């Protein structure tokens, strides 16, 4: 179970995970793989305030990959919001999701796979629409919306405004031999 509201600090001597492909031109999004530090409880530099969390957006067919991601976040004591563990019976799920994105998300993880790309109509699309609205209001250069790949497929070209698309953002690869 995530520990919501836990105070997290960044270890000054611990660098961020390094890019997988250092030869990638600066105009191409970098791919990051979780390093052993993350699996061992590296805190990712996320600072939490009461009720703040990492919001995880995904399609239900990717529950196993999201379970693995949540284990990593739990080990790092990073609170997260996920529909399966954050919604109670009888909750107005649309309102809860909207509130979790608009007022509680420190970071929004948009998880993509062949499963998400194959479905034209999903709740994930609604979540991503809300996230893009929030992201457009943020100052340029703010890291808040992070694409995550569960396979080697392309990041969709969602319009982020100001000539930017989702595929322009650096993304995280959570698959393959380096991610177990």
UniProtKB/TrEMBL annotation:
Signal peptide: none annotated. Gene3D superfamilies: Toll/interleukin-1 receptor homology (TIR) domain (3.40.50.10140). Residues 1-36 are annotated as: Disordered. Keywords: Plasmid. Pfam families: TIR_2. It comes from the Bacteria. Residues 54-176 form the TIR domain. One of its GO terms (biological process) is signal transduction. Residues 19-31 have a biased composition (Low complexity). This is TIR domain-containing protein. It comes from Rhodococcus opacus (strain B4). The lineage of its organism: Bacteria, Bacillati, Actinomycetota, Actinomycetes, Mycobacteriales.
């Amino acid at each position: 179970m995530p520990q919501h509201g836990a105070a997290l600090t960044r270890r000054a001597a611990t660098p961020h995970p390094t890019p997988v492909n250092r030869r990638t031109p600066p105009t191409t999004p970098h791919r990051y793989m979780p390093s052993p530090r993350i699996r061992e409880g590296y805190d990712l530099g996320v600072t939490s305030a009461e009720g703040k969390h990492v919001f995880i957006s995904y399609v239900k067919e990717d529950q196993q990959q999201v379970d693995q991601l949540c284990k990593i976040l739990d080990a790092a004591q990073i609170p997260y919001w996920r529909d399966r563990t954050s919604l109670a019976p009888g909750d107005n799920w649309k309102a809860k999701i909207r509130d979790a994105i608009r007022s509680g998300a420190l970071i929004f993880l948009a998880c993509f796979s062949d499963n998400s790309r194959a479905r034209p109509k999903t709740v994930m699309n609604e979540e991503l629409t809300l996230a893009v609205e929030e992201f457009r209001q943020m100052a340029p250069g703010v890291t808040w919306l992070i694409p995550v790949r569960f396979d080697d497929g392309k990041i969709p070209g969602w319009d982020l405004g100001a000539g930017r698309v989702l595929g322009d953002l650096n993304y995280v690869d959570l698959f393959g031999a380096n991610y177990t």
